[in-house]
Predict the structure of HTH merR-type domain-containing protein.
Amino acid sequence: MRITEAAARLGMSPRMLRYREALGLLPPVREKGSHRRFGEEELAAVTQAVELERRFDVSPAELAFALRALSEPAVAQAVRDLGLRIGRIQAPRRALDFEKEKALRLLRGR
């Protein structure tokens, strides 16, 4: 189906559907160079994205960035580094650090 029919079935404007496509929230176009045709797979993807946006109170752009962070290792690492710096993510404890802390506790106990 064409974008106008798909948008009507989804309860949104064709412009919003194009915006979601530009953000990468739709499956890729099957045939290169052709106009996007919407099938059940595309409609289900948009429906799922809208459900996630409502459930977690995020915008389409925020959801698109979350997908990017999950799929691009460099982006994931940059986000993780920020999370560590601002204290939203705890640094993983290494086994050696754990053993060192354990030894210090035992020494303090004496």
